Amino acid sequence: MFRIPLTPLLPLAGLVLAFSMAGTARAETVIRVAIGTQDTTINCATGGLLVRELKLLEKYLPRDGKYQDVRYDIQWKNFTSGAPLTNEMVADKLDFGAMADFPGSLNGAAHLKAGKKSIFLSVLSGSTIGSGNGIVVPKDSPVQSVAELKGKQISVPFASTAHGMLLRALKAQGFDLERDVTILTQAPEVAGSALQANKIDAHADFVPFADLFPYRGFARKILDGAQTNAPTLHGTLVNADYAKKYPEVVTAYLRAAIEADRLYAAEPEKYSELIEKVTGIEAEVNYLFHGPLGLQTRDFTWKPEYRQAIATSIDTLRLLKRHDSDLRADTFIDDQYIRAAFKQAGLDYEARLKDYDRLPLKAQDALTGKPITDVARVAQVWVEGEPKVRHYVGPENALADVKKLEAAGKKIRIVYAQDRKLGIKLLANQAWFSADARGQLNAFLLKDAAVAWAQANQGKVLDYAQARAGSAAQVAAK
């Protein structure tokens, strides 16, 4: 039998094996993308929940050049607060994290203490005037303002962005924080039960709880962070070494977040429903924040106010003895990655940096059909079974339409109004109204503000039930 000599073929076999092993090595190169989210903190949605649920990160991760043969190990982990998320970032179990300004600053300090560094990459959502944080009281409490909290017991998630807001609000009243009030540490889930049981006089909290608790019917908001004029934000952080090693991955993550923002802006009702499905936070509350003219603005740029918010949080946390690091806002914030993401997306970062507008409302009055050109008194109604929110030029039109809709057997999910003084969106059933001689209604978070408006405009003050009755009477008269 004729046999082929094996010896001359051995080098060739070795070469084939070498190529095969090299190919396998390239195919098995893995880059972890481990992201910590806070799903119930709905301001983090465009950097976490929506990116995950819509699989947007997979769409933008680089797959050419040095990433050609990479396999991505995408890991998601949800947290209810920033502290445990930070612990896992410092332990190198996570690469990215989403959180607010105060816990974000603690993240930066914790990394420095461990001989490491984190970077505050971008804002996700925030308010340059502080809206979103708030103080609530039990629904039947006689307290109408922060001035009436002297001698009271107030709870707050300690070292949170809401804690900073609370301290500012109390100091603005001239309160001695050691003698005039008792401040307790309570997480949102604990505070909710305490409010229902009347075990605390007030509770300060961050997004969305200062509005979620009133929506669920057991609390009433007496202060919105906008009254403190203290900027607040939620944003994303990354391990600095990770960003240096994989800058394209970091930019891709931000591209995915920008895409999530675009989708939310186009269909806020749809994605408010998705957040409810995942978190249990009602869509009506999600829309309050993320719909047109919402409580906060989804804004990825590092406006001066947001940079100041980080600087303030670093200083406040140092005063609270929560850290003693040399963390500084100017070195903690790094906008090169979000600028690169904007450029890749064909967006103008500098133009957005100068733009302070909220998500605009372009709509017609659902009752009259006329275009809404002035949003100062805008009201909105979400009808059960309707995919889109209805918009109105003012509360009187909205409430008149509510009367007609209910008479036709329709169920109303929620009515929104805009605070005429603060310019923030309100849950209408929690608002006070000032009615003028023409029957126009102006909404206010605080009764004192409604009274002042009424006195200046020869009007009268109404609660929600009275405003509804008045609008119904107007409809009947017509």
From TrEMBL:
<dbReference type="Pfam" id="PF13379">
    <property type="entry name" value="NMT1_2"/>
</dbReference>
<keyword id="KW-0813">Transport</keyword>
<comment type="similarity">
    <text>Belongs to the bacterial solute-binding protein SsuA/TauA family.</text>
</comment>
<keyword id="KW-0732">Signal</keyword>
<comment type="function">
    <text>Part of a binding-protein-dependent transport system for aliphatic sulfonates. Putative binding protein.</text>
</comment>
<feature type="signal peptide">
    <location>
        <begin position="1"/>
        <end position="27"/>
    </location>
</feature>
<protein>
    <recommendedName>
        <fullName>Putative aliphatic sulfonates-binding protein</fullName>
    </recommendedName>
</protein>
